[in-house]
Write a structure and sequence with these properties.
The complex is a heterodimer of chains A (342) and B (539). Chain A has 342 residues and is mainly alpha-helical. Chain A has one domain: ABC transporter involved in vitamin B12 uptake, BtuC (Orthogonal Bundle). Chain A contains 14 helices and 2 strands. In chain A, strands 1-2 form a two-stranded antiparallel sheet. Chain B is 34% helix and 25% strand. Chain B contains 20 helices and 23 strands. Chain B has a 6-stranded mixed β-sheet with strand order 6-9-10-3-11-12, sandwiched between helices. A 6-stranded mixed β-sheet of chain B has the order 19-20-21-15-22-23, sandwiched between helices. In chain B, a hairpin with a 2-residue loop joins strand 1 and strand 2. The chains are: A mainly alpha (342), B alpha/beta (539). At the A-B interface, helix 9 and helix 10 of A face helix 12 and helix 13 of B.
Chain lengths: 342, 539
């Protein structure tokens, strides 16, 4: 009843508000999105949080997680890679064609698998080399370079295959990398975890990782600091492609066929995962764990909607809306950040 | 003469008589996140006076005029305009009231024409269509009235800086203002253009327009100023009539210190020659013609001149940032560039490895990564060194230790090396930029305008730092358009004008008159150039 208690209540409220603002500024919109999504799906479906469904979700998320990490490498430099989709196509097609061509049809065919994987990764990485040369040396804007590259590579993939899927690769390839399990957890999840750790070390503990942030933060200052900016810009696209091809091989194994249209969604989804995870499209900021969470979030929403039997066309609408919301939320976060002093 | 018409013109509708207070700013404060840019500042502007706003970079002058121009709103305090309290809520509103500003950073769209720029934001329309003929006529009239020889249809991009400045002034003048604000308008003008601007300002005064004029130059204050208000660190210091302002007094008011406390004495122990530039030629915007300079260990060599005189180009050329069309550069006994024998071993990485460090003048654009923290910025140029990484990984612990050492040495405030650079003041950002060279071995420092946008405290730290470096045996090339800096710090100074080295002055010969004498265009050159222009030859 007294004024003093009233005041202390008010200051407590202000403190809570301040605290919430700090949490929001530190973590961004993603944690809130995640909590909200989990709550909604948990309440509206029976088996969303069952162990089985969680494993399924994580396995589904592996491909996107990898591509998003790849995309992040390029986004940090203030670039963009729209050709991650066709890297899936070319890797899938080339690797399966080589496997089918080399394998005699007898035995496990591990030789053919190794050769196919190497060829597929080589082909996919070559796309990144092309992007890197265009962007770093000829100064083609990343948007144009990778968009044009998409058209070129997709055309090549379709030409090679005539548009039809390629079957007949050694069954061990699919059984191990697509469906295999280790301590009852799918192999792709293990591989992805290993990749996340490697990427974390690369981004945070290697010189190149540091340079990626510097390039995106201020290219000119990086140059004056004696960094070979062209080289590292080039390498960013190559690294992005190399990681993407790995995801493409895993997906090829899962599908048991080589196809030219398997990656069409990945440019949009990977950029979305990064942006939702707080990576700036203008380069220089972003944290790897948040990107991983961003990718998992997108898959989680898709999975939840599947359980709710929302059709896939409508799902596209929802994903688009979420992306816009994430960006608006992030703008708001910047504003709040300015009002807090530290 | 079109200028004559200005006197008869109807610039301000009410014609306030000279001496009336048009604008009164009372106890104006402005809080930005993290800084109090203005702290209860009071000033007034009378009709027909030139009121000079004086202070160091970061003193709050720009914030003050941006509040008047409606760019920012004050956090507290009141503004009285023609006796009425007003709350200026937008640039449009300020313009409507009659406040016009000629900003330092041009508010022009380079791709548009002069007339488009003049009317930007207040185009005349008939229905949805622009009234282009009327617009052009009015643009023509405004330019004629001011006596500016500009074509309304010309694209701003292709104008010289001085011409762009004219467009900027015409834009401010077009709305028939009661208050006109000039923010360092002569920074990019030649002597002749400056003189024309002063004539124009005299005419504006006779029309009863109140003028707020920001400048660093003492001689300009005496030439056109009536009263001076001095700001320091966002605080109001004093308002005095120009007649009472001596140079000494102004510097003391501005900095709060006597000159001796700002500039440390630097001992000279000139040793071996570190840098020798012979007949350097650079083309382009800031061209250099046949420049020859040399720097020895243990001395501070000045390179003075106006913005655009080519002094920066020389510093940048040593680092491999300019396209050199002729000349020879020798560094520490090795020929690193020789056009004649096609030797080019320049480039940031290579010169850093040889121990030359170039500190760019624009820290935001070229010097620092604002999104990264202090530690990351300090180590950026040196990550390849054994103290910072082995073949594969960064050594973060040792990086942190090194960064901490540098931060302590430079008095970084706050001393938090994990804080993002964005959140530091300009002076402390500058300290970080200077500090980048401390984590590696440097023999020759090229400082390009090291104290632009820096408060006195940071300025003193940076000067002391330069002293320590020099006395420890490093060579220092100090590129600066800040005269006191050149006068008090250098042992030897070259003065540049329009790409030529005009003079080499020894310590005993360096004084304000001797340096300024070479800063500006000389009388006979002006006549020569006018004759050139008359005969239609390009310069």
């Amino acid at each position: 009843m007294t004024d003093a208690s009233h005041q202390s209540q008010e200051s407590l409220l202000a403190k809570i508000e301040q605290r919430a603002a700090v949490v929001f500024v530190r973590g961004g919109v993603l944690p809130w999105f995640l909590i909200l999504a989990i709550l909604v799906f948990w309440l509206s479906t029976d088996n969303f949080l069952s162990g089985r469904n969680i494993l399924t979700m994580l396995r589904q998320a592996t491909y996107l997680t990898m591509v998003s990490m790849a995309q992040m490498v390029v986004l940090l430099t203030a670039g963009l890679d729209l050709s991650v989709g066709v890297m899936f196509a070319i890797t899938s097609v080339i690797s399966s064609m080589v496997m089918v061509g080399v394998w005699s049809g007898e035995g496990a065919g591990w030789g053919a698998i190794a050769l196919g994987c190497a060829a597929g990764m080589g082909a996919g990485t070559l796309v990144g080399v092309g992007n890197g040369i265009g962007v770093a040396i000829f100064r083609v804007p990343p948007f144009m370079m990778t968009l044009a590259m998409s058209s070129i590579v997709f055309g090549v993939a379709l030409t090679i295959t005539g548009g039809t899927p390629i079957y007949g690769m050694p069954s061990d390839f699919a059984e191990v990398f697509g469906y295999g399990k280790f301590i009852s957890v799918p192999v792709p999840i293990w591989l992805t975890i290993a990749f996340i750790i490697l990427m974390y070390i690369f981004i945070n503990w290697s010189r190149m990782g540091r340079y990626l942030y510097a390039l995106g933060g201020n290219l000119k200052a990086s140059q004056l600091s004696g960094i070979n900016t062209r080289l590292y810009l080039f390498l960013a696209y190559v690294v992005c492609a190399a990681i993407t091809t790995f995801a493409a091989l895993m997906l090829t194994a899962r599908l048991e066929s080589g196809e030219s249209n398997i990656g069409a969604n990945y440019p949009l989804l990977s950029i979305s995962a990064c942006v939702i995870g707080g990576v700036s499209l203008f380069g220089g900021t972003g944290r790897l764990p948040n990107v991983v969470l961003g990718a998992i979030f997108i898959i989680l929403v898709q999975n939840g909607m599947n359980l709710l039997r929302i059709n896939s066309y409508l799902q596209m609408v929802v994903i688009g809306l979420l992306l816009i919301l994430a960006v608006i939320g992030d703008n708001y976060r910047q504003k709040v950040m300015l009002t807090l002093r530290d | 003469m079109p200028q004559a018409s200005v006197v008869n013109g109807t610039a301000s509708p009410e014609h306030p008589s000279s001496g009336d207070v048009i604008l009164k700013m009372e106890n104006i404060s402005k809080q930005f996140p993290g800084t109090l840019a203005l702290d209860r500042v009071t000033m007034d502007v009378r009709a027909g006076e030139v009121h000079v706003l004086f202070g160091e970079n970061g003193a709050g002058k720009s914030t003050m005029i941006q509040i008047i121009a409606g760019v920012y709103r004050q956090t507290s305090g009141t503004i009285h305009f023609k006796g009425e309290p007003v709350s200026i809520h937008s640039v449009q509103h300020a313009r409507g009231l009659g406040m016009s500003a000629v900003f330092q950073e041009f508010s022009l769209v380079p791709e548009l024409s002069v007339e488009d720029n003049l009317f930007l934001g207040s185009e005349l329309t008939r229905g949805p269509m622009l009234r282009k003929a009327t617009l052009r006529k009015q643009a023509r009239e405004t330019l004629d009235r001011l006596g500016f020889p500009l074509k309304p249809s010309k694209i701003v991009l292709y104008l010289s800086r001085a011409e762009q400045q004219m467009v900027e002034i015409a834009k401010a003048f077009r709305t028939k203002p009661a208050i006109m604000i000039f923010d360092e308008p002569t920074a990019s003008l030649t002597e002749r253009e400056t003189e024309r601007l002063f004539q124009l300002i005299e005419q504006l005064k006779t029309e009863g327009i109140g003028i707020i004029y920001i400048t660093h130059r003492m001689n300009e204050i005496k030439r056109i100023g009536d009263r001076i208000t001095v700001l320091r660190d966002g605080k109001f210091i004093d308002t005095i009539p120009v007649a009472e302002a001596s140079d000494q007094k102004l510097v003391e008011l501005m900095t709060g210190r006597v000159i001796d406390q700002i500039f440390p004495a630097i001992k000279k122990h000139a040793g071996d020659e570190l840098l020798n530039i012979e007949n350097l030629n650079i083309t382009g915007d800031n061209a250099v013609h046949n420049a020859s300079i040399h720097v020895r260990r243990g001395e501070v060599v000045g390179l003075a001149g106006l913005v655009g005189s080519g002094k920066s180009s020389i510093g940048r050329a040593c680092f491999g940032l300019e396209h050199i069309v002729g000349g020879k550069i020798t560094y520490d006994g090795d020929v690193v560039f020789d056009r004649a024998s096609r030797v080019n071993r320049l480039g940031p990485r290579r010169m850093l490895d040889r121990g030359l460090y170039y500190l760019p003048s624009n820290r935001r654009a070229e010097g620092l990564v604002m999104l990264q923290n202090v530690r990351e910025n300090l180590s950026l140029a040196s990550l390849g060194l054994p103290a910072f990484s082995n073949k594969l990984f960064l050594k973060k612990r040792s990086e942190r230790a090194e960064a901490k050492k540098v931060a302590d040495r430079l008095d970084l405030i706050p001393p938090n090396i994990e804080r993002d650079l964005e959140h530091f003041s300009g002076g402390n950002q500058q300290k970080v930029m200077v500090g980048k060279c401390l984590v590696r071995d440097v023999k020759l420092f090229v400082f390009d305008e090291p104290t632009v946008g820096v408060d006195v405290g940071a300025r003193v730290s940076i000067y002391e730092f330069i002293r320590d470096l020099c006395e420890a045996g490093a060579g220092i090339l100090l590129i600066s358009s800040d005269l006191p800096e050149i006068l008090h710090l250098t042992h030897r100074t070259y003065v540049m004008y329009r790409g030529d080295i005009r003079a080499e002055l020894d310590k005993s010969e360096i004084n304000e008159a001797s340096v300024l004498n070479h800063f500006f265009e000389k009388g006979d050159e002006i006549t020569e150039r006018i004759q050139h222009e008359k005969s239609g030859e390009p310069l």
